[in-house]
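F.,

This is the one I mentioned.
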């Protein structure tokens, strides 16, 4: 009779070990999922911050172009016109960088599946940027186009900052 108890105890012990092993595997999977989620969030934050850098640089150059444009409209000369165009050209390079950075940011946001409503929605900005820069370096730089670009960039910055802040608070 002692042999039967030993076998039963052994079977029970094996079942306990199997249960513990299964539970440990589940816990390990949960830890890996948690780690991956935080990693994805950190990657999205980094991409958002890169986009913000490019957007802010474009904004700074566009503000400068606006200032030089005002001077140019009220009695500027060749030099002020050249500086205005140079600042606008520099802004266009940063806008192109921002377009790429925002596309990467959108892709990174797709990796963060469990957070709702994470979308920068910069389609209008990207479409506008393509339209704006097509004729930017023409002989006459229209001041209203500069102001419109400044508003679009400021809106893209605000949206991106909002999403990055939400990502940071989810960590």
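My design for it:
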């Amino acid at each position: 009779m002692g042999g039967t108890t030993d076998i039963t105890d052994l079977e029970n012990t094996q079942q306990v070990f199997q249960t513990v092993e299964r539970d440990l595997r589940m816990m390990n999977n949960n830890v890996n999922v948690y780690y991956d989620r935080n990693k994805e969030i950190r990657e999205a934050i980094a991409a958002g911050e890169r986009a913000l850098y490019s957007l802010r640089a474009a904004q700074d150059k566009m503000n400068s172009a606006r200032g030089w444009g005002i001077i140019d409209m009220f009695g500027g000369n060749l030099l002020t016109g050249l500086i205005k165009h140079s600042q606008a050209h520099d802004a266009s390079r940063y806008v192109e960088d921002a377009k790429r950075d925002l596309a990467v940011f959108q892709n990174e946001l797709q990796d963060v599946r469990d957070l709702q409503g994470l979308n920068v929605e910069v389609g209008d900005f990207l479409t506008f940027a393509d339209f704006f820069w097509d004729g930017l370096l023409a002989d006459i730089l229209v001041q209203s186009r500069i102001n419109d670009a400044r508003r679009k960039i400021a809106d893209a910055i605000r949206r991106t900052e909002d999403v990055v802040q939400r990502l940071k608070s989810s960590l």
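The chain is about 85% helix and 0% strand.

Talk soon.
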